[in-house]
Amino acid sequence: MSGFATYFLPCTMHAQSDNNNVSVRLQIELHDGMVYNVEPKDDATIVEDLCIKLLRQYFPKMGPAAVQLFGLASIDKKQTPKMLWVNPCITMEELKKQILNSPTASAKNVYFLRIRFVPGRKFLQHLPILGQEVLKYLYLQCKDDFVKSRLSEIYEQDIENEAKARGYAVLSIVIASKMENKDCAEILSKQKLDAFLPSHLNVRFWRRVRLKKNMRTKTKEFLSQHKNTSLDELWLGYIKDVLNEVQSYGVERYEAKQVSGSHRPIQITLDVQQHEENGNTPFKGLFIHDEFFSSIDDFRSIHITPNHAEQKKVTWNVHLDRSNGCPEVLSFDSKTVAESFVSGISGYYRLITDYYMNPSQQMELPSLQEINRLKCHGPIDTNTAVQKLKTKYLSDEYYILKQSILEFDQFAILFCNAGQTRKRVISRQNNKYFLEGESELKFENINSIIKYMADVRALLPKHPVKVKPQQEPVDVLRKLYVQEIIPDGDEEAAISNQRKKPCLILPEEIKIGDLIEKGSFTEVLVCDLDSGTLHAAKRLRQTSTDQMFRCYEHFQNAAQQLMRMEDPKFFVRVYGLVLTMPPVLVMEKAQYGSLASFFKKRQSNQPIKPFHLLNAASQMAQGMLYLSENQLVHGNLCCRNLLVFRYEIDDILVKISDPGMVSLLNNLDLLNPQNRHRLLFLAPELYQGNFQRVIPKMTLQSDVFAFGTTLWEMFAFGQNPAETPQFKNLNNMQILQEMAQRRLDPPPMLNTQSEWKKKVRDLMSLCWRPCEDRPAPNLLLRDLRAQVADYEPHGENGYSSIKRDFDDTIPNLGREGNTVPDLISSTQEFQPQRQFPTFNPPLNASLDPPMVFKSSLATTNTEPSGVIIYNRSLPELPLDFKYIISSRRLQISYKKLGSGHYGVVKEGMLFASQDDRSNPQKIAAKELKGDFQNVIDSEEFKEEAVLMSKLEHDNVVKFLGISDNMLILEYVEKGALNMYLRKFRKQNNYLPRWKLIQMISDVAQGMAYLASMRVIHCDLAGRNVLLTDKLVAKITDFGLAKILQQDKDYYTRSTNKELPLMWCSPESIANRKFTTKGDIWSYGILVWEVFTHAEPPILCSNFSKEGYKTLCEGERLKKTWYCPKEVYQFMEKCWEFEPDERPDFNQACQKCREFTEIFPEPKDGLNKSSHHQEPLPPVPPVPKLDIEPMENDLDPQTSTLLPATGSGVKPPSQPGLQPSEDLKYMINTNLIKLDDEVIGKGHFGFVKRGTYSPKGKEVSIAAKVFLKSHSKVIEADMVKEVNILGTLDNLHIVKFYGFIKKPDLMMIMEYVENGSLKNYLDQTRVSGGRVPDSRLIAIAIDIAKGMEYLTDIKVFHCDLAARNILLTKDYAAKIADFGLSKLMTGDKDYYMRKGQEVIPLNWCAPEVIQQTKYSSKTDVWSFGVVLWECFSQGQIPNLSKVTEELRKITYYRLEKGVRLQRPQDCDEEVYGLMMKCWEWEASKRPPFSQIFVQCLKLQEMLGKDS
Predict the structure, then answer these.
(1) CA distance 385 to 401
(2) Which domains are present in the chain?
(3) Among positive and negative, which fits the CA dihedral 1401, 1404, 1406, 1412?
(4) Catalytic residue positions, numbered
(5) Which of 809, 1123, 1305, 1400 is deepest in the core (most CB within 10 A)?
(6) CA distance 1079 to 1013
(7) Known binding site: residues?
(8) Annotated binding-site members for ATP
(9) What CA–CA distance (Å, rounded) separates 950 from 958?
(10) Average confidence (pLDDT) over 931-945
(11) How many whole angstroms from its chain centre is CA 345?
(12) Per-residue pLDDT at 118 exceeds 80
């Protein structure tokens, strides 16, 4: 059967059941037409073995490197995804069970052996390195997909051009003739067109003969033109064409749900094809909803766990842990889809990042296990191996063992002998090994061959050292996906030296405070820099001068070592050195000190759970991975050198500190008492045969050994292993001798038999293996993250299969060793519920008593043992990125501004960045109580944050963002309105009525704004209104608020929610139905509070029982002596029983205006407040709105809300403090292709032409590329330009597409063919020509029309000039360059620009020159100058040749009436229009609407441009 031209036989899996004996017949099709039948007795036990067996059998020249690209897939257009990949690690029996249990199983289940990891289009030229047959197979696969119409079925793309499709057929025929060594005519005569063309492109019989004849002709022509073209080149050409036409070829798409999100389906794309234009990995990897999520390199571990949250079915969660962002959990409906997704990421990770580790422990391939067992390099290039030996391992004692690229069962050993690099080939046959050329000598294993080569052949030294593979890819495979960039050696060294250079701090800049911890040689104290931020200062203890000098060098070594550990995520940050005696190392301060001391000193409300320990261990492993990647060693890992920066009930943050005086300790005898505490942390190879002195050269392997002991120390809660009963009574020598014979016994809490404890014990044992067999840090991290994933709950009520094991009670030992109560148990399980008094509403009302709050995200399931399963999902980001504030930019004080049921409010500072601590902004941080790591773990706080992010009004507290478990709000100086007024009442002092009316009018304006935004507050009260230092009232606390749907004007709240009863309207109490008319009732209560100076609004003694009845009987709060009659009458209207009879907030604003007229603010300055009351603007109509209150701070006795939970301050506006720019205009870099040619240059960068392909449609663009040296300086200005350009949509405005921040800062705009008007005029003038007046006036009309549009939407250009006007191919004008523009809001018609030193002087109006004051009339002046430029044929508009004090001289000349002279040959009417634009008084200049009309008249006079 011809492998090329034959139809594929389907891969079928027949399931037959006979008396419970199930047999599955499995057929797998290769892309050469071969079909393989898998028999029950087949020795292929897992899928990977099966794939390798088939490839070795049918493609014997397909080597170990090429098989890494393959996978086994089923294709079904009814399933999602349409191509599903089989887990390569499952057994054949498991695969057959999946077939039988599949709901879509049938008699015909198609499986294909395919190249899964298709190389990038740019890198296909490297594919032949893996052998000719892999190139052939990829060609056959692409051809089959084209002919069988799988391109459209799988990738939803096809070769639609019929002529091009027939061109593919011609190329296939030519290739077939070369493969089968036959003439093309013979190929066409023997095979049907169906073998080369898809069925939908085949023609009917009567046209087919003619088509075949035509194709014979074309094939002859093609062959004559490509006589010398090799078969490899033809294959490669066909593949490249298919990949260019179907750009998603090889891209995998899945559908899942984010566990922490809205549970809506999301689209996931695994793609290293479409995003390859940039060459490197940051834009290749995983995308969620087409937004870049993570590169392949950044994945650290992937783990699959079952989720039993849904009763009907089990879903499968995939935990993605990455180095560049928060972990993510994705939920898949089936295990097979989850495994397909994970195996894809794992495969790419091994090909691109680290060949020797699979990020998913559950998919560790047997072939990978064999490589790691042999400590053998993969199929790397021989030159790479030689280079590795020459550059890193200079001694002859080293050798490298590697796999062959092209041959299975073949290895190569490379070594140095007599100064020369040599290579010997080792072959394997029938599980025996032999050297090439010496096949008569068979060996049991490779180690025996190494010993033979050393002892007998003397090719290797007596004790050769094998170079183990590091965390690295295989070069020949990585080249298929990534373009390697080799950094300049000198530049890299310079950067490295600069990075390690310490920062020196002057002694007078630091103030030393209290002692934190003290060691044998050093002490740590609190210190304060001039920035006002507390740090930690580490210095030598001042014992004796001799000891200090002896320790000085070792202290410097420790400081330098910590400075090399640069990543602040994993290591304590160093701020600098103080060169005093003793020297001081200034570091960031850990809140809880070292982990060892935290274990001893933690409070009773700080329990330690397995999650804490595993998380701390994984963070330590991440730090070790960083050390490994940067070829660094710590040398003294232990709990004393892990610092605790954050502790939460379900989270902990630790960082690795400096190694301390380890170099000093290494010079002491191991028998010295100073070394006792570290004996069991030292790897045996460091002191073998020498107890007198430690070998000073620590290694990564010795760090791994110490990691295992530190893990033991963690699970022993800080107990040093040398102090355990096993070693306590032994001296140092005896301990070392004991350790030579055995290892540490497990700590007590790991003694019991459970799955997770066994895994932790096994991990420790791996770390204590002999040096060569210890795991690398990336493996430690992967396994620990898998443990954390197993521990974390999945979904709202689901948990993993080993979740119950993880909830063993851990003894929590306090300072004196007493048991510390479990906070979760004490607060969730055993805390008595609060009881609320109930009352009986009338018959037409329904009211359930308020229920105690229980978060839906913090459900607890009590096991029979009494242990609580605490479910927590990973946080989502429901807000714009600009509202996510890094905790490193915050400094929160312990000063409480308020507290309530949900949290406390603390004072704090917000900095511009984590490095820039100048000009901090004062803020209020609303911190969650309870078991929440992040705001978005709490539904209530999350809703409040999302709602507040949509609000912006002078009388609403400004929301700045979220950070961890805090809402960050503006700081409002005077605090809560009720507390402020109460202070005056207690002093028997009352504020003047006009001040009180100003306060209630502020609240009315804020509530009217909320109503216009369809927001109901539901908890309006004096405690939830804050006052600034000028007594401006601001509404806060939106915990009960709700945004209404568009089709509803009410909201009914569920019955288990607490209500602020004494502020609630009758319908809210009875039916729990809330509207804006309910808010107006509460507003009436607030006004009553204001005029009573915060007396409690008590209507009856037991409001919870009798309140509703009292309201129904018409009883209301009584008028007090200080309340004006007019104000109380308005209150009574707010308290009408029927909601429709109450006023709305529009009317409330109007009433406040009337009150202001009755009680005006004094003009004599007596009792006058600094509060500035501007006229109340008209308020839009308020719709009827309803909403239900959420749980809040309800007093259980009075059913009233507790006092307000805090406040916040609004500081002066500081642009540098904005969290980040809006990302809605960010463009995916991979949709942009730029030409090499630069079409324009400037001071800050250059412009290139290119294409942009949004939604598959390609458009021409111009990319404004900013130089990296200037990008940070101009980024803020560029963002302003982006925000303005994004609002513009006009034919005469350059279309703006968006911007890019990486790899370079760019603005993407439409490409305008003829460039700038300035260049066009200059080129025409220099060449001796002249632009006709008719064309010039047409250009002026376009500019005037564009400027009229900008004026209408209140945008000032501020830099209108010929250089900023672009011309299309038809010479239509488009306005560009909005760098100085300003989008105006409010009632202002001008803009004052501060700090602008450089202005385009010759284009500026007088008010701009003198005051930097811009308006639409200043743009009119600039338009006149542009008109002058046009009719002067591009001359520069200079008013003065004087360069000194040019700005003042220009202003003086303009003031005296000097203007630009009429250009030569310029019509008087045109010049007259210019002079009108240059009127001294801005108000006399014509608007652009008049200028446009005037230009049209001029066009009638001058003629239209042809």
Answers:
(1) 9
(2) 13-236 (3.10.20.90), 252-366 (2.30.29.30), 376-468 (3.30.505.10), 881-1158 (1.10.510.10), 1221-1310 (3.30.200.20), 1317-1502 (1.10.510.10)
(3) negative
(4) 1359
(5) 1305
(6) 14
(7) 926, 1264
(8) 926, 1264
(9) 10
(10) 56
(11) 18
(12) yes
